[in-house]
Amino acid sequence: MRDQIIAHLNDAGYLEKMYRGNRGPFKKEFASLYPDVKGNALADFWNERLNYENDEISWGSSRELVLVILAALTAGLIAKLPAILSINQETFYSRNIGFIIFPLLTSYFAWKNKLSPSKIAFTAGAVFLGIIFINLLPQNNKSDTLILSCIHLVLFLWSVLGFAFVGGAQNDTDKRLSFLKVNGDVVVMTALIVIAGAIMTGVTIGLFSLIHFNIEKFYTQNIGIMGLAAAPIIATYLTQTNPQLVGKISPVIAKIFCPLVLITLVIYLFAMITSRENPYNNRDFLMIFNGVLLAVMAIIFFSVAESTGGNKSKVQTLILFLLSVVTIVVNGVALSAIVLRISEWGFSPNRTAVLGANVLIMVNLLLVTLQLFKAAFKQGEIGSVGKTISFYLPVYFVWVVIVTFVFPLVFGFR
User: Does the keyword rRNA processing belong to this entry (predicted)?
Assistant: First the structure.
């Protein structure tokens, strides 16, 4: 992209097309080359444009705003289907919670990125396959494969959303990394919206209670549920139209949490040695242990995604490297524990799923740690870490597909 920008530095139309097609990488590459082309009228204009921060909230085009409002209302109605159609809530939400939000967000990015008809058909087909498959599985609350399929179906739908976000450009590692960054920003914005909504809920219920109107049940079962369903969609729209809203918050969160998580993990590993409870003799402990592992992996990925858009100090890179090393140790403990359980009791759906996930995470961690080591000690670039993460994402997608759609058949729905 850098060479393309230089070659078309005097072509305003071409630069505009490049920018709209891939804003994050364009801004990153332009910032790195601007000192060399400073003085060029068009280059100076783009520098001002890319670094201008608008304090006002942008609501985008009226057409886009209407589509987002309709999507938010649709999400709320889907969330209310159990009450509307008298469907068992536990059955509906356990199997279909991912369909409340992800298909709508997928449609939004498919429209925004102007996906080709063939790619739209692919995303729609993947979503419908998920709906049909998960709702045709036998009803058995004790079925491990059903639980695994329900959990991994959410990740499957998230992957389809990622496909729509990158515009179907499977080999564009920069866009994949941008997708991870957007996910972090959306989580932050959604949390802020939910907190604001909770405050509004408390105030509203309190005010009506003063005049002896008990609206708590009605409000929580209707307004509350629809608001929770709509929150991620509104958050996504706001982060897309106003990246400056969380553009400075997310990196700060990453910088604060990385060293804190590193210290916590080190202390925890030493405490675990002296404790009677460990992943080797406690199944629930192993599940929680793996949950912690996934959370730390998410923090590492989010931090790397945030750092590739600008310069990262050697100290921050070193902290990420140390965190990755400690996470490898954590993953090693979890992996050895699950191998021990399999050697004693054999393969089961849960043990196989956890084993596969831990092996994939271990390989990914080793690759990421190697790149972080180069970036911290051998004058490597933090961008190479992001490319490693982006390149590995399809591997997770393949495993998610296997657990979601193949495990129930292989293990006989048990």
Answer: no
